[in-house]
Amino acid sequence: MMQRSPRERSLSIPWRQSALCATILAAATTWAADAAPDYTQLRIICFGAHPDDCEIQVGGVAAKWAAKGHKVKLVSVTNGDIGHWRDAGGPLARRRTAEMLAADRILGVTTEVLDNHDGELLPTLENRRTLTRLIREWKADIVMGPRPNDYHPDHRYTGVLVQDAAYMVTVPFFCPDVPCLQRNPVFMYYPDQFQKPNPFQPDVVVAIDEVMNKKLDALDALESQFYEGGANGSAALLPSEPDKQQARKREVRDYFANRQKGLTKRFRTQLADWYPKAGEAEKVQFVEAFELCEYGRRPDQAELKRLFPFFD
Ligand SMILES: [Zn+2]
Question: Considering only 28-32, 141-145, 294-298, which range has the smallest mean pLDDT?
Answer without folding.
Answer: 28-32
